[in-house]
Amino acid sequence: MTQRMNGGDAIVQSLLLHGVDTVFGLPGVQTYHLFDAMQRAGDRLRLICPRHEQTTAYMAFGYAKSTGRPGVYSVVPGPGVLNAGAALCSAYGASTPLLCLTGQVPSEFIGSGKMHLHELPDQLATLRSLTKWAARIEHPAEASALVAEAFRQMLSGRPRPVALEMPWNVFGMQAPVDLAAPDALTAPAIDETQVEAAAALLREARHPMILVGGGALDAGDTVLELARELQAPIVSFRGGKGVVSDDEPLMLNCAAGYRLWDETDLVIGIGSRMELAWFRWPPGRAPRKTVLIDVDPTQATRLRPDVLILGDAAAGSGALAQAVRRSAVPRPSREASLQALKRDTLERTRKVQPHMDHLAAIRDVLPRDGFFVEEICQAGFASYYGFPVYQPRTFVTCGPQGTLGFGFPTALGVKAAHPGRAVVSITGDGGFQFGLQDLATAATYGLDVAVVLFNNGAYGNVWRDQTRLFGGRLIASELRNPDFVKLAESYGVAGTRVSSPAGLRSALERGLGSGAPALIEVMVDKTAEVSPWEFLMPAPYQV
Q1: How does pLDDT run across 317-326, given as a tens digit for each residue?
Q2: Among 119, 149, 178, where does a domain finish?
Q3: What is the pTM of this model?
């Protein structure tokens, strides 16, 4: 049905057709008509406006990571796009569906080089360098079809961020518009010949290992089915935490998995870049084959597996489990030995203090279905092996970009998506100050995130490396910090300062039960911290 509307309305009505219920954004002169259209959508669309453009995109990132649905944000062109660019990088690296909606200079000035307000030399090219796909909407009549294409690109195959820009004048332009329905998306059909080829390799393997990544977050049942058929350990790093509950005997963290690496003679990567195998762990002694189950065919070029099963992680691992069941001799249970390995590894990693005790305190208080948002800090690194996870998507990570400061604003987006579930954001004193102004956003919108701020007075990794590798010559690694408790209180957020894991546990119990945002500052002596890196980057690859 054709309706007459302006460009802003055409975008908003198309978003609603695609099931979007929340947009994070900050209005500016180029996008006034878009935000007016969102406001007029009423209860059908929630608009959350934080205090920094980077937070709009991080909140959308947190929304998407924790739900599996697209996160949508809007910023002004030029500086707004650039301010939000780090979150696009994070979403690209972490295979997360994110839609950036932005403006452009008026149509007649595009490419003129006259430097109209917020003009970039080639904004569309900039966006294309950060996303899977980007396009310009030149007229309201194009808007709905291009929104539909944006969703198709974002969600088909490997999910990744996309972007749409619209010139300033087109947002307010009236025209007849045909609203385009969402495309039906299907995953590639599983090739049974590849499944049989993988099963043949597995028949010869004595010690297979399964590595899971973020692409397997919806495939936990079939991954576990395959692991049980093979009696193979399942190992995750960051993105794959929660694919299978850490309660399961066959599920290992990366520190425990490494101890089996030398004997592993076949690796099955499921929805994973297999960073542990090609970057973090040494090559090992055993001759090793690789089977990859992935929806992205280009992974075969990057990872060079012996067999690629192209398709959805759940369908691929389920098909392989059935093939193994048909053709392989049942294997003796390894559950008891792997449980013993897990217990022993936990004892070995306990020396990473005070982080392991702090993480244990958080895990004790956070409900099993609560969300834990990591950060680029010492406790965050330790959480990759030191924080058990029981459900998919409840461990929220920025993935390989390692984006300092992403955690707190991302946690706000997680909470916006899950108002009835607990959310804990851990952060360091350095990274938190990239986005601390959005304490105001937490207070304004009642986003009751519990922020656990570890204050060691430094960029911890940089300080340690400068101390260890450069004779103690410190450059910009020690921090002059505000009084974080008073700062939080000035924004209307309750603040508490503690200095022990027991104090953290008590403060977190109060904070998560308050129904309001809370900041818990944990004082840490950087000179007494034990580095988490021994279990993340074993020799000879330690930096």
Answers
A1: 999 999 999 9
A2: 178
A3: 0.97
